[in-house]
Design a protein that fits this description.
Largest sheet: 3 strands, antiparallel
Number of domains: 1
Radius of gyration: 22 Å
Oligomer: single chain
Distance between the termini: 60 Å
CATH class: Alpha Beta
Order of helices and strands: HEEEEHEEEEHEEHH
Strand content: 15-25%
Number of strands: 10
Structural class: alpha+beta
Strand order of the largest sheet: 1-2-5
Length: 155
């Protein structure tokens, strides 16, 4: 398996434009230096300039990263998957979140990536503002019903 490329916050700023008011990321136009020569299906050579032109026509200016099945916005950069909220943190603060720390969505909306809604916290702190599960009848997070214990106490 290949090593993950060293994508720095500066490189993220070159690839993406971040709108703090909306929390959205957009692809920037890329120069030919980001591309290599390639071959087309007939064996002809496509230059780096041609590849850049094709990519820019298709993606430049369009919204980057889409919602996954869990509601988080994710996207690929250089064939590696990234969470939008972590990329945004790197763009704004100039460094990736510390290893072992989570980027928490304060209001609980996983698609709201405004920097005002993001904070870097421990995994334990991140779990404290979790939404109450649908099957929770006590109204409290982390409290569960133990039928056996309840039966013993009521006799």
């Amino acid at each position: 398996m290949a090593d993950k490329p060293d994508i720095t916050p500066e490189l993220c700023r070159q690839l993406l434009r971040y709108e703090p008011e909306t929390g959205k990321l957009f692809w920037k136009a890329r120069p030919a230096s980001f591309f290599a020569h390639s071959f087309n299906r007939w064996g002809g050579i496509k230059t780096a300039e041609t590849n850049a032109l094709i990519w820019n026509r298709k993606y430049a200016g369009k919204e980057a990263f889409t919602a996954n099945s869990r509601g988080y916005r994710t996207g690929r950069m250089f064939d590696w998957q990234y969470f939008a909220h972590r990329v945004i943190w790197a763009i704004v603060y100039g460094e990736w979140p510390v290893v072992g720390m989570d980027i928490d969505h304060i209001n609980g909306d996983k698609s709201d990536n405004r920097i005002a809604n993001l904070r870097c916290v421990s995994h334990q702190e991140n779990g404290q503002n979790a939404k109450r599960p649908n099957n929770n009848t006590s109204g409290r997070i982390g409290v569960s019903y133990n039928r056996r214990l309840y039966t013993l106490q009521t006799r």
